[in-house]
UniProtKB/TrEMBL annotation:
Pathway the protein acts in: Purine metabolism; AMP biosynthesis via salvage pathway; AMP from adenine: step 1/1
Cited Pfam families: Pribosyltran
InterPro entries linked to this entry: Ade_phspho_trans, PRTase-like, PRTase_dom, UPRTase/APRTase
Domain Phosphoribosyltransferase span(s) in chain numbering: 48-151
Enzyme class: transferase
Protein name in UniProt: Adenine phosphoribosyltransferase
Catalytic activity field: AMP + diphosphate = 5-phospho-alpha-D-ribose 1-diphosphate + adenine
Annotated localization: Cytoplasm
Keyword Oxidoreductase: no
Complexes and interactors: Homodimer.
UniProt EC number: 2.4.2.7
HAMAP family on file: Aden_phosphoribosyltr (MF_00004)
Molecular functions (GO terms): adenine binding; adenine phosphoribosyltransferase activity; AMP binding
Amino acid sequence: MTNSHWTRLIRDVPGFPKPGIVFKDIMPVLADAAAFDDAIEALAAPWHGIRIDAVLAMEARGFLLGTPLARALGAGIVPLRKPGKLPGRVFTQAYALEYGEDALQVQADALPPGARVLLADDVLATGGTLLAAHGLAKQLQVEVVGVSMLIELGFLNGRARWDGDAPLHAALVI
């Protein structure tokens, strides 16, 4: 199966979650086993052979991709959650997104300092969520070795806001 198969399954949903936004629905990709496998391999491909201790996956669709991505890379998974979802001491990073404001949190003891991590999510839009994830990685004192996004909305120029030294990979640029 080629990558074009999984990319054709992505649906546009106009007006969700609010008017003016065109939501990229990846659920049909997840529901098709072969397409899901291809999408995960497209996310993992640049990182094979690179030591990655954990994937930091952004809530919520990032969890659906980050978990099998971590498994494909022989790494652990650390969820970056919305406020109030994690027990214990947490680090918090606020951010702006294309339709409002939000924050992500990570457990303060999720990883030892110096761990090598890959940031992962479903869509790179304006870059706010990615910058928040990077801010949490800094608070954890871990090394970001890369970023893997399923879809990059190139017209929103989120890549230009990436302030990390690590490479940013998008499996599909729209």
